[in-house]
Write a structure and sequence with these properties.
Number of domains: 2
Strand order of the largest sheet: 2-1-3-4-5
Structural class: alpha/beta
CATH class of the largest domain: Alpha Beta
Distance between the termini: 51 Å
Strand content: 5-15%
CATH topology of the largest domain: Rossmann fold
CATH superfamily of the largest domain: Response regulator
Shape: elongated
Order of helices and strands: EHEHEHEHEHHHHHH
Number of helices: 10
CATH architecture of the largest domain: 3-Layer(aba) Sandwich
Helix content: 40-55%
């Protein structure tokens, strides 16, 4: 039996995935979590083989969860399920401790293949993922996949503009600005604005 935990803050997706896997004879569902803190609580009490991990979660996101687990001697294999698919993002999730990656819109057969493979071999890579990793080793993956609009927002953040000021300057809603900021951090695998500014300076984005 493969002991599995599902971590995703979207209740419908998480419960749907739980119901789907609950029908599989080889899967034992140990628990479900809506953020990284709940993941750590479950892992403190149960032995888990595979963690199905979303990245974008409140309180403690997938990157922070992987960083904590990376330091632990005994950790489950981590299969990241996400809708983000840029080469930089995929590169960052593996750099932060993921053992496998699968898009959220994958079919059930592909999900079962991923779970079984990461459990038995320790890793799971689709052909696309392998190409991204190989190109990264060869230096062919761009250092960033940031759009022109996102670069504009990064520059304003670096110039110490507030979210409201950026929204007013770019004629956007504050919600849109916050969404851009969150997506930039996710793409680059960064934790906060300070890390974003440092990265942007190093990469010549500003």
């Amino acid at each position: 039996m493969i002991k599995v935990v599902i971590a995703d803050d979207h209740t419908i997706f998480r419960q749907g995935l739980y119901a789907l896997l609950d029908k599989e004879d080889r899967i034992e569902l140990v628990g479900e979590a809506k953020d990284g803190k709940e993941v750590l609580e479950i892992l403190a009490e149960h032995a888990v083989d595979v963690l199905l991990l979303d990245i974008e979660m409140p309180r403690m996101d997938g990157f922070d969860t992987m960083r904590v687990l990376k330091k632990q001697k005994h950790k489950p294999k981590i299969l990241v399920l996400t809708m983000h698919a840029s080469p930089q993002f995929i590169k960052n999730i593996f750099a932060n401790g993921a053992d496998g990656y699968l898009p959220k819109d994958a079919e059930k057969a592909k999900l079962m293949e991923a779970i079984n493979t990461v459990y038995t071999t320790g890793s799971y890579h689709t052909p696309d993922t392998v190409n991204i990793i190989m190109n990264t080793l060869k230096g062919n993956v761009p250092s960033t996949n940031i759009s022109a609009r996102e670069k504009e927002i990064i520059k304003l953040i670096a110039d110490q503009y507030t979210t409201n000021e950026i929204a007013e300057k770019l004629f956007l809603s504050t919600h849109t600005v916050e969404s851009h900021r969150k997506n930039i951090l996710l793409k680059l695998g960064l934790k906060n604005t300070a890390g974003l500014v440092k990265y942007a300076i190093q990469k010549g984005l500003i």
